[in-house]
Structures are given as C-alpha cells and as structure tokens.
Amino acid sequence: MRLSSRFRITYALSFGSIVVLGLIVAWATYEARRAHDAEAVAGEIRDLILERAIVRDEFFLYREARARAQFETATARLDSKLSAARTVFASVEAQRTLDEMQNVTAASKAVFEEFARLPDGREALSAPVSAATALSQRLASRLILIALDLDGNAGRLRALAAERSRVTEVRTTLLVISLIVLTLALASVNAAMATRLVKRRIERLQAGAERIAAGDFAHRIDVKGDDELAALGRSFDAMAARVEASHSGLAAEVAERARAEEAARTSEERFRGAVDASLDAYFLLRAVRDDTDTITDFEFVHANRNAASIVAVPAESLPGQRLCEILPVNRTGGFLAKYARVVETRTALEEEFAIEAPGVKPTWIHHQVVPVGDGVAINSRDVTDRKHSEEAIRTLNASLETRADELEAANKELEAFSYSVSHDLRAPLRAVDGFSRILLEDHGDQLDAEGKRLLGVVRTNTVRMGQLIDDLLAFSRVGRTTMTRSSVDMESLARASFEEARTAGDAVSFRVGPLPPAEGDPSLLRQVWGNLISNAVKFTGPKPERVVEVEGRTEEGRLVYSVKDNGVGFDAAYSNKLFGVFQRLHSSAEFEGTGVGLALVQRIVHREGGEVWAEGKVGEGATFSFSLPCPGGSS
Amino acid sequence: MSASRNGFILLVEDNPSDAELTLRALKKARVANDVHVVRDGAEALEVLFAEGADAGRAGFALPRVVLLDLKLPKVDGLEVLRRVKADERTKLIPVVVLTSSREESDLVASYHLGANSYIVKPVDSDKFFEAVHQVGLYWLLLNEPAH
Predict the structure, then answer these.
(1) CB of A302 within 8 A of CB of A290?
(2) Rounded to an integer, what distance in angstroms lies between the CA atom of residue A58 and that of residue A365?
(3) Fewer CB within 10 Å, N or C, chain A?
(4) Which residue of B has its CA nearest to A523?
(5) A427, A463, A481 ranked by CB distance to B124: nearest
(6) Strand A295-303 to strand A281-289: parallel, antiparallel, or no bridges (unpaired)?
(7) Chain A residue with Cα closest to B18
(8) What is the interface pTM, i.e. ipTM, of the complex?
(9) pTM over 0.80
C-alpha cells in the first residue's frame, strides 16, 4: 500500500470521526429536544387533567351549565392532546399508557354525561341521601378516581420522558468515547505500520546505496511492494544497473585501450625491428621550416644501421642532426628540393640514380621517398648489381633479337629455296619424263626392246625423283607452316585415309574402333593418318588375308591412337631407324616409297606435342602408335 | 592467228619444254582451238589488254580460256591474274592456273584473286597429259562461257 494512501486513510479516519461526532451530537440534541417536548406535553396533559378536575369539581358544586361546557371542552382538549402525544411518545409503554388514558378519558366523559343527567347533587349534599344521590356520589367518586388515574398516568408519561432524556445522555457519552478510542486506535496502527515500512525501506536503501557507493555495482536493493519507497528502490536499482553497465563498458574500454597501446607498442617494435634489420638504408626525416613556412632543411628522426653507414654517422647520434649539415651535397644536389616537393605535394617519389666517383664504377641507388607526417620516409637500396644484370639481360635480349631476326631471315631463305625446289626442280623432271614419253610415242619404232626398257627406267626414276621432291617439301613444310588448332574427328579422318590408300581391287579388311576426337591441325593430322594407314595397306600386300585395325583410347591423361596390320612387319632391331628421313627397311623393288612418310609422321606428332612409336616382328605385322595431348589441356 | 568461233586459248608459260608438252597434250586431247603461247606476264597482258607491241591491233579478241603459270619473268602470274580479274572487260575469262607450285600460299592467293581452277603440273607425264586433257575437256567443251 502506498504511503500516501496510508496518510489519506488517517485523514479519512479523522474526518469520519468528526462527521460521526457531529451526527451523534445532532442526534443527541434531537433526542433531548424530543424528551423535552415529551416532558412539556406530559406537563400540559397534567395541567389539562388538573384543569378538568377543577371544572368538574365546580360542576359538582354548582351544577352550572358553563362548568359542564368547560368540562366537556377540557375533555375534548385532553383527548386531542393525548392523540397528539402519540407522535411524541414512541415507546410501546408510553403508547399503552396513552391508550389507557384515552380510554379512561372516554370513560370519564361517559361517566360525566351520566352524572350530569342526574338531579342536582347539591340538594343531595344537603338533603337526605336518596338513591339518585347515592348514584351521583358514586359517579363523582368514580370521576375523581379516573382523574387520579389519569394524573398517575400523566406522571408516568413524564417519568418516561425524563428516562428517555437520561438514556440519550448516557448513550451519547458512550458513543463519543468509543468513537474517539476507535479513531485513535486505527490511526495509531496505520501510523505504526507506515513508520515500520518507511524505516525498513530506508534502511535497505541506505545499505544498498552504501554498497553501491563502495563499488559493488552488481548489488541490487530489490524491494517488493507498490509504495513510493519501493518505486524509489527500483529506480535506484535501475540507476545502479546503468552505472554497472557504463562502469563495465568503461572497464572494457580501458582494457581495450591498454591492449591497443600494447599492440601499438608491439607494432612499433616490430616495424622498428624490421626497419633496423632491413638490408636497405632507411631514413625518417622531419621537415625544418623557416618563418615563412618554407622547408629549409630536414632533421633526422630515425635511421637504421645501413642508413647511418651511408652518411658515416653512428645511428644513435643521428637523430636531431640536420640533413644539409651532414650531407651538404643535398642542398646543391637537389635532394632537399625533391624531398620538400614530396612533403608539399604528398606524392611519393621513386627514382634511380647513379653516384659517380672518379676512377670507380658508378653505384646505382634505387630511392623511394614517401610523405610521412610533416616529413619523409626514405628507403634507399644499392641496385648496382641489378643494374648490371639488367644491362646483361638487355645485351642478351638484343643479341637474341638479332638471332631471331637472323633465324627469320634464314627461314625466309629456306622458304624461298623450297619454293624454288618445288617449282624449278620439278619442271626439268617433267621435261625429261614428258620428252621420253614423246620419244617413245613418236620414235618408238626406231628403238629396239632394250632401248624402250632403258627409256622406261629413265621415266620411272624421273617420277620417283618428283615424288621425293614432293615428300621432302611436305616434310619441310611441317616445320614452317603455322599450325591451326581445332577439334578433329579422328575416326572420320582415319576412314577417309583408308579410302584414299586402298587402290581399286584391294581386298583389305579395315576395322576402326570408336576414336576419341583430338585437338590439333586438321590437315597435319590428316597427313599422319594418311601415311600410317597407307603404309599398313602397302605392307599387307603379300598377305592372302589383309587386315588393318585402327584403335584409340585415353590413357594417362593423353590420347593414344594405333594402326595395326598383319603385314610383313619389321625387325625390331631396326625400329630406331623407322622414323628417320630416307630410312627404309625394305627395298624399292619390294615396296615403293621414299622413306619420308614416317619421318613426316614423327615430325607432325612431335609438333602437336605427342610421341610416336612402333612395335613389330618380321612376318607378323606391325603396330604404329602415336599419342596426343588430351583436348582442353594446355598446349 | 584468227579468231575462230570457239575462241583461242592463251597459254602463259615461260618454260619452252612445258609449253611444248602442254601444246602436245592439248593436241592429243583433240582440242581444236587455236593456242596463243606467250613467254611472260607482260606479253600476256599485252594480248589481253592490247598493250605494248600489239596495241591498236585490229580484230582485237579475248581468249576463251587462259592457262596461266605463276612463276613468270617480268610480270608474275598472280599479277596477271589480278589484272585480268580486276578489269571489267576480262574478268569473265576463265583463268586456269597451271603451275609446278604446291605451295599453299600460291593456291590460296590464286583463289583469292579469282582463279577458276588451280592445277599442279605433275612430274609424271602420264598424269600431266591426263590433267591437260581434263582441262581442255572441261573448259572448252563442257563449260558454257558467260559471253
């Protein structure tokens, strides 16, 4: 419960007490007045009873009509008074008394009527006692008794009113006292509870505040309740939490800063170590400026050992010294201006220059200057050796270029030579053959059989020489022409080559397995297949059943193709001679050929980046294989 | 040289042996057309464009077909080919390159310039005669000229 609520309760209690007190007083006043009224009414009734008794007695004595009228008026007044008194006297006893009194009054009225009808009583009083006189005397007595009874009742009414007044007094007193006591008790309890709560809260708050003040930021007052001090405690806890958070943040920041400083120190050490250990010369310079902010000199901030040895000053004593004082050449040699420009333009400078001294080879320095703060960092390296190497490489390159030019020229010459060979050497041969033929045709009848045979020999050799020239040209062209590269369908090439190699009527069984496509120069690869397959067809000639098989596979990251025949084969001892130019293992009489075909195959396959090899036995056929790099691989 | 109804053949050949063999082969192939033999490119151009010695000659006519060697004195065969194919008057004349050269570059250059055929003269005279026979058959009998 909130403290303010408690205080409000106390106020409400006090206010309520006052109100109740007022009500009690009002009630008591009302009651007292009612009692007073009742007493007055009771008095009036008594007075009326007395007045009636006087009027009655007067009538008794004088028998006057006036008295009788007066009595009747008094009786009526008494009756109405009694009726009115009913509202004043609420108690049952009083009501009963009033009932009785009204009955008695009514009875007295009747008795009085009867008495009045009787003859005059005065004579009776003085005359002998008659029966009427006796009756009137009895009636009179009865009236007197009734009057007495009425009077008694009126007295009782009065006593009742007095009693009521007294009871009201006592009740009022009791009520007031108990009200005061109750109010005081409630207020005390409320105050005691509030005090205890406030005391407890304040103690916890104080203790918590002390702990937090002592640095225990994790402490929480943790008050339960919904009063203001509990709210204060919660606010305090919230504040403590914020303090804790900011404190821990601060602590982390401090730790981070310490780490950063440590890292910076380590880094500084590391870089200083790296700089000092560098084989290059390293300087750190700070600009020195005059009044007009113009750079007039540089001051050494740091220099490593190599740098110090260049300027011939110990590294330790270098910091603080001026560049132009140690090396006056800098003022004149343009370095000062260069460094100043680096600082002003914030643009790094990199250059190479030679330091020349009479009688010795120049020393080449590679020099890099970068702006650092209001100064420069300079890295210098002796690159004399590199310069010499570069010079050597340049010379070598130049001579290589010359050689390349020479080679190209030689190639051109060779090309021109080949052209001449192909063109000029063939023409005379054609003439020899052509005219031999004309000789045979036109003058054959003048030649005998031997003469004709000899001319035939001339022609055969002429044609053979033409073939040799063609083959040699093809062979040399392989080395000279530029190769193209494209995907080549090896299977259709092999089939086409077989169709070309087979002469009409040849019954050669040709089997070709699925061949993986290759990548290379299509026309060169065509020559490879053409030579190998025509060889195979040629050397199966003497066999009754001629078989040529072509296979292809991928093996160890390369493509391998082979052409196998069941022909005359070859002596494995001479297999090394197979691929040489003009090398033949058979005579021209046995198998025609120039001995260039396989050399051409080898040359092409080598140019395509592959190998070529052969296996065979005399009489049992031969297998010629070649490999090529897999397509997609680097050439 | 008279301009027959079928036109004449211009044979450009510097080698007299080859020229004689070619003539004989044409004769054996029963080609009836006149054959005009010139020894070099310059002479060929004279015949074709009526330049030089033949300039202003009456009855100027164009050959039915040109048999052209490539390696020629003065003006070489490729130049002759280029001139023939570049000129409106002569570019429709079929030019058959008849050469000893098997060089790829010659072949490609000839076709680029618009040669109608490229024939390598075989050393073997049987094949040579056969080749000339085929040329005569094709260009003079089978082929319908443009004019």
Answers:
(1) no
(2) 169
(3) C
(4) B104
(5) A463
(6) antiparallel
(7) A431
(8) 0.78
(9) no
